[in-house]
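Consider the tokenized backbone below.
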């Protein structure tokens, strides 16, 4: 038998290394490819994190061990296992067909109807308010006294408010509809005129609020074309709509079919 030349040895080693680079593990001679790990990682939010990838690798190895054990015991030949495999396959195919139908069944008319519902919910007045939140009525009274003396509202909010999220912005709560706040807060806020501050602290479950109304405006919903993709996703997520489409597809298929 002829000996391999040095060049052939190098090539053989290179080919072996290249093949191994494409695998993350070899379990009893069965390779688990890096491509399979990458495909799973793409479906996870933090799939590129090294620790996550290690966990995926271990899961794939463990799964391969169980699959090899199933083959060794020939469990796939059992009638009950074959029936379960057939049912699982049918369920996957059913879901795929239904998903295709749902994706192709979102009509412009349905989207506009959904848009009307969303637009109605978004209509009305929006308020831009600032507040200073404290724990006790005594603290609130002291702040109200300082405001009467001309102390800056925003400066007091940064210094005194226990609502740290808004305090850094001088108590600013940004634009919002009244129903987003607890009733006592929203009632006091909408009773103010633009530029006014509550004369008394407003008590809620969070503490005592001094509220300043900065501005009021009519809410303007986004244009239909801007939110069309989001509306489609909302519609497809509706169980009622899914059931309606499933019934439609079922009737369509039965109409086309020859059933004796």
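A designed sequence for it:
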């Amino acid at each position: 038998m002829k000996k391999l030349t040095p060049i052939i040895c190098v090539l053989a080693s290179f080919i072996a290394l290249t093949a191994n680079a494409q695998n993350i593990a070899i379990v009893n001679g069965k390779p688990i490819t890096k491509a399979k790990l990458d495909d799973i990682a793409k479906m996870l939010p933090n799939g590129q994190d090294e620790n996550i990838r290690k966990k995926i690798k271990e899961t794939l190895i463990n799964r391969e061990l169980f699959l090899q054990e199933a083959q060794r015991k020939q469990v796939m030949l059992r009638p009950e296992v074959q029936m379960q495999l057939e049912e699982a396959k049918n369920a996957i195919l059913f879901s795929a067909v239904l998903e295709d139908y749902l994706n192709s069944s979102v009509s412009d008319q349905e989207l506009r109807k959904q848009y009307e519902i969303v637009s109605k919910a978004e209509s009305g007045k929006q308020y831009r308010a600032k507040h200073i939140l404290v724990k006790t009525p005594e603290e609130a009274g002291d702040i109200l006294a300082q405001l009467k003396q001309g102390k800056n509202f925003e400066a007091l909010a940064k210094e005194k408010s226990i609502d740290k999220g808004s305090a850094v912005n001088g108590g600013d709560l940004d634009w919002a509809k009244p129903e987003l706040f607890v009733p006592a807060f929203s009632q006091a806020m909408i009773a103010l005129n633009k530029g006014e501050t509550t004369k008394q602290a407003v008590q809620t479950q969070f503490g005592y609020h001094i509220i300043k109304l900065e501005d009021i405006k009519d809410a303007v919903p986004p244009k239909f074309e801007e939110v069309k993709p989001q509306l489609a996703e909302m519609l497809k997520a509706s169980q009622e709509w899914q059931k309606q489409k499933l019934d439609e597809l079922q009737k369509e298929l039965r109409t086309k079919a020859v059933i004796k």
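Residues 103-119+228-256 form one domain.
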